[in-house]
Amino acid sequence: MTPLPTAQRFPLRSLVLLLAASTLAWLAGCSALPTQAPAATISLPLRIGWVDGLEARYVTTDVSDADLAVEQNANFAPRLARSAQAPAGLNLLERVYKVANFQQRPVFQSAPQPVGPGSLDKSYSPLWRLTWVTWKQAGQAKELRSEQDILDAEDQGLLTVQATDLVLNCPILSVEGRGRLQGVRW
User: Fold this and answer.
1) Could you write out the three-class secondary structure of 102-144?
2) Which of 18, 45, 61, 183 has the maximum number of C-beta atoms within 10 A of its C-beta?
3) Can you say how many angstroms the Cα of residue 162 is from the centroid of all Cα atoms in its chain?
4) What is this structure's pTM?
């Protein structure tokens, strides 16, 4: 009697070894793959404003008003306006102050502190209700660098403050002395 060839004698064993070797090769190949895809980069217009007397850098991505979206070169997002109608206590908006009759940077009500995932500021939101500031007498106008500066000037009768229903999405990327988001470069 002639013995059977090895492949015929142990077909199951050969198949198991082949599958095991293939699986190990596949797993070894996968382990060489990066765990995260390389980060792509983009370029957006960087804007500068004030928060608590400190320089804040931000981008504007979305605006609830069509004309303002064109002016800011941002997405027109009319649904953002609904957030301005939320009842007190449920409103996610912070105020961003824009002076109507004097050239200056906008003033933000708050910012992440510190900037990034470790922020402890529970009130910060990147959604802002546009609030107009108007000096009553142009000769008294000066640069305001914080919400407190604006409220003090309003208390002194030097200017008026008028909230709107216009909403902007302007994430703050960095604040002088409070850091910046990881990976942000300029």
Assistant:
1) CCCCCEECCCCCCCCCCCCCCCCCCEEEEEEEEECCHHHCCCC
2) 61
3) 25
4) 0.77
